[in-house]
Amino acid sequence: MNLKYYRDDWSLTEAFHNPHTLFHDTNHVANNDRFSIKTSSIETKHSAQDVIVIRQIVNKTKIAWLLMFLLIMSPGLGLVVGLHTRRAEVGIAVSAGLFALASFLQGLAAWFHG
Prior knowledge:
Structural class: mainly alpha
Oligomer: single chain
Shape: elongated
């Protein structure tokens, strides 16, 4: 599909997440008739028609803060656990586990965004 023009419709986005917002909207169908299927005869050419495209918007700022938090906390939490248990290997394991979690989340963010 080749989209020449698109715009975000926040009312439809809100309705997608919370369908109850449309409960009192009596003009919703009339306001969004551009999405209805137009009937045409075989002789007439098809004109451009609006469609609803559902896409996921990734908030890069929230993901960056989460990754920075995990990357800062992984050595700190590993150090606290290692000192509390008096076993360096446990602290290193906790630190490595949190670092692996941060790497996994970064990969997921790149995959969803890409």
